[in-house]
Amino acid sequence: MAGLELRDIRKSYGNVEVIKGVDLAISHGEFVVFVGPSGCGKSTLLRMIAGLEDITAGDIFIGDTLVNDVEARDRGVAMVFQSYALYPHMSVYDNVGFALKLAKTDKEVRDKKIREVARVLQMEELLERKPAQLSGGQRQRVAIGRAIVRDPDVFLFDEPLSNLDAALRVDMRMELSRLHQDLDATMIYVTHDQIEAMTLADKIVVLDGGIVQQVGSPLELYNRPANLFVAGFIGSPKMNFLPVEVAAAANDSVIVAGSALDSTELARPIAGIARADKLTLGLRPQAFVASKAGIRGKVELVERLGHETIVRVRLKDGSDIMAVLQGQSDVMPGDAIGLGFDHKDVHLFGKDGARL
Amino acid sequence: MNAAARSLLARALIVLLMAVTLLPFLSMFSAALAPSGTYPNGLEWPSDPQWINFVKAFEVANMGELLKSSALIVLGVVPVSVLIATMAGYGLAKLTSNRYKWLYLVFVAGLTLPFEAVITPLYYEVRALGLLNTRFAIILPLIGLYMPFSVYWMRAHFLNVPNDLTEAAQLDGATRWDEFWKVQVPLARPAIMSLMILLFLWTWNQFLLPVVLVRDPLQRTMAGALGAFQGQWGTDVPLLCAGSLLILAPTIILFLIFQRQFVAALMQGAVKG
User: Does A87 touch chain B (CB under 8 A)?
Assistant: First the structure.
């Protein structure tokens, strides 16, 4: 088992740079999730760690070893593919044992390890079957088993749950969590699903456009997003953004106002802003409560989920915001509504999108 | 036209097509049963079927020897061709970087080459190698001539194998060689089988090459034996037909055994498997 370090990793295809200098340190035993929209470079980064993709510049260390020029098979990593990539002509037993067979592991040791993995993953009764005879969830288990049996330094997962249905995904997510604890292994996991990221990760790496936007624990990212991208990406429904202008800035408070927001005083010191600066104010939909004060608008759409009610509200400047009201609200489309919020829940972002 | 009439018409067309396909065989069969030395028209059943013609054809053409010779040639050509084509197909599909993709076009260009156009230079080449009148004069050129199609065929198969499998094998610790033999070849079995069947047929039915490059009829393929029925003064049509049917027999038996693979071979690429 080992940690991992990336130093100024870059990747270009011809003239197009897709990974633009990633620095990252992952300690032993950490569960790290790379998350970001399609095409952000998260899978490329994972494949570079695996050794399946050449790196254009930078260094990758696994443990203390520089692995830039080490073949994938010698890196001590195991990977679970989105497509599972099971060998169709081999039984589950042979699929799981393939790596051991290649390593010329003694037959009895091999058999013991395969059966142990099958026991851990509760798939002992599947060992004689071929992949084609398995359901999606079972295939996923085999793919994970194939990774575990090798006892690798680092586990890599490339969107492993995206082909499963919703219920199974929840089960497998918990199973992965349990596995991470049991194995005490370093795991790197790629997904575009922020729920997976939030629930599994010790540390989330948010990527966009080949650049790391923020690294932090799930709640750090949720509570203190570093920029507009992270703020909009983490959290569901996504954070509402309102354009505002600074009306007055004092040492320990700032007053902002916008086309949809009356003058609002935020009682906290914010450095580096001046009167008339144009900023973006962010409020999570969950920050709102129905009230007489606050932001006023007309209810456009209501989604009743039982434990909460999601409301889309049209503001006076024509923009829409989403609010999640706790419990079963009786608002109806067309109703006038006021949305109150606590000033502590307000996020402010500067012109360049960075958090203030 | 209503559905019933349409289906009837479709059936009629299929029956017609079958008749057209089978007619030459039936015609040959009836001619093969006519008395030796006559000139049957092949459209009527002989009044006194001469089954003995098949035995005579077998003896006259020395079919027993030829069967052995054909088998030797097939054994020399097919396994080697399939092995080389499988490796080359894998190499071109999975190991070739974009810069060298054009290599594949060299093989495709080979597909456009008419066989008859190379037969004369081939004769001189085989003579220069000192292989004239040996079975190697048939085996070596055939392996070469089959390469464009075979490589094209195998490459098409390997292109369809997801890259994830290659990568999974690499991460499992496989060398390229391990991956090829333990993952790719087992998966390519249907394609390899189809290719073997096709190459067998083409080799078995090879006529021109053996006739030109090998003088001794007993070192040729079975199809080359047809010459035995052509005298200087005339051709014994019933024996020729009986001989032809005997030569066809192994391929027909093979077809019946491997029917499913044959159809699969022809359908390959038609639907995503």
Answer: yes
Domain end position, chosen among A216, A233, A250: A233
Backbone angles phi, psi at B160, to 5 degrees: -85, -10
What is the structure's pLDDT at B270? Answer: 44
Q: Determine what percent of chain B is predicted with pLDDT higher than 70.
A: 92
Q: Are residues A167 and A271 in the same domain?
A: no
Is pLDDT at B240 greater than 80 in this prediction? Answer: yes
Judged by a CB distance cut-off of 8 A, whether residue A52 touches chain B is yes
Mean pLDDT throughout B154-171?
A: 92
Q: Which CATH superfamily is domain B62-267 in?
A: MetI-like (1.10.3720.10)
The 10s digit of each residue's pLDDT in B91-119 is: 999 988 888 888 888 888 888 888 888 88
Domains held by chain A: number = 2
> CB-based contacts of A346: which residues, under 8 Å, 6+ apart?
A264, A266, A281, A282, A283, A287
Chain B stretch 157-196, residues whose beta carbon is closer than 8 A to a beta carbon of chain A: 162, 164-165, 167-175, 178, 182-183, 186-187, 189
Q: Where in chain B is the domain with CATH 1.10.3720.10?
A: 62-267
User: Do A181 and A39 belong together in one domain?
Assistant: yes
Q: Spell B116-143 as b/e; 16+ CB within 10 A means b.
A: eeeeeebbeebeeeebbebbbbbbbbbb
B171, A83: Cβ pair inside 8 Å? no
Give the residue from chain B lying closest to A50, CA to CA.
B171
Do A228 and A251 reside in the same domain of the chain? Answer: no
User: Which residues from A are below 8 Å from B162, CB to CB?
Assistant: 83, 85
What pLDDT, on a 0 to 100 scale, did the predictor assign at position A200? 92
Q: Which residue of B has its CA nearest to A158?
A: B164
Q: Give me A34's structure tokens.
A: 């790379």
Q: Are A247 and A233 in contact (CB under 8 A)?
A: no
CB pairs under 8 A between A and B: 59
Kindly state the average pLDDT of the residues B123-147. Answer: 91
Q: What is the pLDDT of residue B268?
A: 55
> Is there a single domain that holds both residue A131 and residue A44?
yes
> Which residues of chain A does B187 touch, with a Cβ-Cβ cutoff of 8 Å?
87-89
- Using a CB-CB cut-off of 8 Å, the residues of chain B touching A82 are 164
Place of tokens 């349990």: A178
Render pLDDT for A61-111 as a digit per residue (tens, 0 to 9).
Answer: 998 899 999 999 899 899 999 889 999 999 999 999 999 999 999 999 999
> Any idea what the CATH number is for the domain that residue A342 is in?
2.40.50.140
Query: Is residue A113 helix, strand or coil?
Result: helix
Q: How far apart are CA B171 and CA B100, in angstroms?
A: 25
Binary contact (A98, B172; C-beta < 8 A): yes
Q: What residues of chain B lie within 8 A of the CB of A146, using their CB?
A: 168, 172
Which of residues A202, A217, A233 is at a domain's end?
A233
Residue A284 belongs to what domain range?
240-349
B40 and B237 Cβ atoms separated by less than 8 Å: yes
Give pLDDT tens digits for A11-53: 999 899 999 999 999 999 999 999 999 889 999 999 999 999 9
> Same domain, yes or no, for A229 and A98?
yes
Helix H or strand E segment including A66: strand A65-66
